């Protein structure tokens, strides 16, 4: 445990003193604050002179400030934090010859990869928490509304699931830093995996042409089903679906398009109130389990590969 703490302490210090991390954190923080500030001003203007609805504070996370809401911004650019923290975590020391010297010390090999991963998790957690706290304080100023207990709980789960999502990409970057000796190759592989799973897979559904004799409604339903199937392979889509329900109590489904009959439509209009937090979590439980599962799987593969890797300096 002492070796693990020492490695964590060193890695956390390196991350917080790194110029690339400071630049990336400053950029993400500034864009997030600007988006939430613009969204808060727009919400306050729209609700001026009217009774503020329930859960108005959560609208900061779902309303578009400068093009898209905060939830989508984290889904698109949050993985960059994890990728930048981990793409050279192993092969950099490998190429510099410090990894073999480190493993020559009386410590277990698993303390190295566990310490590096946990240090990245800690840095990501501090980063997301700081941004959410700043956004919460900014919302108090722009909206003039104090969030309720359930809103704070939903913000906490938003932060927790976002941490799992970004840490998955940290695990992907660490895996490539173990597989590839070259830092450039591991960086390109990490970015390629992010682009493929986050953008190419969701875009593949829109490329399907309509079938001959297929109606417009049938084509829309078939495209929605195809997009839903392909989204099972996209961590970003799973994250967006879970966040859409967690931060919006009025949201009753994680799907973008749902076909309902007449009786179902009547039932939905009759029970149109907001969902409780436990009901929202139960609705997106499969998506959250998926994110946790791929995080554990990715780190397990990295752990096994690193344990069996032959480490030699140049």
Overview of this protein structure:
This protein has 314 residues and is mainly alpha-helical. It has one domain (2-308). Helix content is 74%, strand content 0%. It has 14 helices and no strands. The protein has helices spanning 2-16, 19-46, 59-62, 70-86, 91-96, 98-103, 109-143, 149-179, 183-204, 216-231, 235-246, 262-270, 277-283, 285-308. The longest helix is centred in the middle third of the chain and has 35 residues, at 109-143. The radius of gyration is 22 Å and the shape is globular.
Summarize the structure.
Helices cover 74% and strands 0% of the residues.
Topology:
Blueprint: H1 2-16, H2 19-46, H3 59-62, H4 70-86, H5 91-96, H6 98-103, H7 109-143, H8 149-179, H9 183-204, H10 216-231, H11 235-246, H12 262-270, H13 277-283, H14 285-308
Specify Rg, calculated over alpha carbons. Answer: 22 Å
Estimate the strand proportion. Answer: under 5%
Would you report the number of β strands? Answer: 0
Q: Spans of 5+ residues with little confidence (pLDDT < 50)?
A: 257-262, 264-271
Mean pLDDT: 81
**Helix proportion range:** over 70%
**Major beta sheet summary:** none
Overall, the morphology is globular
Tally of separate helices = 14
End-to-end span in angstroms?
30 Å
Output the structural class: mainly alpha
Q: Could you spell the SSE succession in H and E letters?
A: HHHHHHHHHHHHHH
Oligomeric grouping of the chains: single chain
Number of domain modules: 1
